[in-house]
Design goal:
The protein is an alpha+beta fold and 372 residues long. The chain folds into 3 domains: 25-116 and 245-284, no CATH class; 120-244, Immunoglobulins (Immunoglobulin-like); 313-371, no CATH class. It is 47% helix and 18% strand. It contains 9 helices and 10 strands. It has helices at 25-44, 52-84, 97-111, 205-208, 246-284, 296-309, 313-337, 341-358, 364-371, and strands at residues 120-121, 125-128, 131-132, 144-146, 151-158, 162-171, 174-182, 197-204, 214-224, 229-238. The strands form 2 sheets. Strands 1, 4, 6, 7, 9 and 10 form a 6-stranded mixed beta sheet that branches. Strand 6 and strand 7 (174-182) form a beta hairpin. Helix 1 (25-44) packs across helix 2 (52-84). The radius of gyration is 47 Å and the shape is elongated. Residues 91-96 and 328-372 have low confidence and may be disordered.
């Protein structure tokens, strides 16, 4: 993910930032590694059976950290940046909902429980170390707990002669066959089915605990000479600290690498945002807001002042009536004043002045004009 930089010309009002998803390739790769390390460590700790679904959840969840973390931090940066420009440009609408629209269903899929498989199917009875697994699920909660010094003893009761069978170890997206038997004598056409019987086998737990520990899921299947089929699935939990095995140590290291990568992506995004906002603040310090642009506080203050200074409707009506009365009184008083003796004197004086100037008697119009 390349770091964003912006340069400004003197007097330039910068354009607003627009949000878009950010992707850190290193964050995606190391996040996927870390996510896988987390789910493997969960398996090594005996908390979960590591199947294909859980493996995908860990990888996808870790990879998403390289997308969600920088995208979310950039959304915060965009908001901070554009708020600095609120006095210079119109307010934007940042569409950050896309991140959550993608994150919510993906997160829901990551935390969804892995469906359990059927345990025993067919006309067979299976026991492990004396425990009937017919009522157990191949999960960590129903796992048969053993130690490194124990021996696994499996016993299968089947209604017909054993023809072929196998036991597979399921781990993540892989399946390894650890037992594969085929009875050539029984399948000889000259032989006959000897009927129901019991088959038994054993294995040392130490062979399984050499490289790892935790919970492991197994799946077994068998075909009888009569054509009947049986299958069984179960889980074995090795009681041993995960950091004492190579797989456990590697899983912890991978999880730590993923965590460090996620922290690095977050720190890089924060530094990028601080650089963008800091550069904008430095540039805007030399600019004056345009005169026709107002901040939210200025607009709110102007509206408040207007509402406080607006007259009440009742007071306005009373004031109107008083004004009309005052006008009427003024008109009446003016008419009376023109009839006073003082006004006659003034009129005569003016008339004399006018007579001296023109040599004629002053007219009525001149008298009214002087009085006015």
């Amino acid at each position: 993910m390349a770091r964003m930089k912006r340069t400004y010309r003197p007097g330039e009002v910068p354009a607003r930032l627009r949000w878009r998803p950010r992707v850190s390739i290193i964050g995606v790769i190391l996040g996927a590694l870390g996510g896988l390390g987390v789910v493997v460590y969960l398996q090594q700790s005996g908390w979960r059976v590591l199947d294909r679904a859980l493996s995908l959840q860990g990888v996808i969840g870790g990879a998403l950290s390289g997308i969600l973390i920088p995208s979310l931090i950039y959304a915060i940066t965009v908001r901070r940046y554009n708020r600095r420009l609120s006095a210079f440009t119109p307010r934007p609408r940042v569409a950050t909902a896309l991140v959550w629209a993608l994150a919510i269903p993906l997160a829901a899929g990551l935390v969804a429980a892995t469906p359990a498989h059927a345990t025993v199917e067919g006309p067979c009875t299976v026991t492990i170390n004396g425990t009937d697994i017919g009522g157990l699920e191949p999960t960590a909660d129903d796992a048969i707990v053993v130690t490194e010094d124990d021996t696994l003893v499996g016993q299968v009761s089947h209604p017909s002669e054993w023809q072929a069978g196998s036991i597979d170890l399921h781990y993540a997206a892989f399946s390894v066959t650890i037992v594969d038997e085929f009875d050539e004598v029984v399948n000889d056409e000259d032989q006959v089915d000897t009927g129901a019987s019991i088959s038994q086998g054993s294995a040392d737990v130490a062979d399984l605990a050499t490289f790892g520990t935790g919970v492991y899921a197994f799946f077994g299947a068998a075909v009888m000479e009569s054509g009947a089929e049986c299958s069984a699935s179960f889980a074995i939990k090795l009681d041993k600290p995960p950091l004492e095995t190579p797989v456990g140590i590697a899983a912890a290291a991978a999880a730590a690498i993923g965590a460090v990568a996620a922290a690095g992506v977050a720190i890089g995004g924060i530094r990028e945002g601080s650089s963008l906002v800091g550069g904008l603040d430095e540039h805007l310090a030399g600019l004056e807001p345009p005169p026709d642009t107002f901040t939210d506080d200025q607009i709110e203050s102007a509206v408040t002042d207007f509402l406080e200074g607006a007259p009440d409707l009742g007071e306005s009506a009373d004031s109107g009536v008083s004004a009309e009365s005052a006008d009427a009184s003024t008109d009446t008083g003016g008419t009376d004043e023109t009839a006073t003796p003082d006004d006659d004197v003034t009129t005569d004086t003016s008339s004399e002045d006018a007579g001296e100037t023109t040599g004629t008697e002053p007219s009525a119009e001149a008298s009214e004009e002087t009085t006015t």
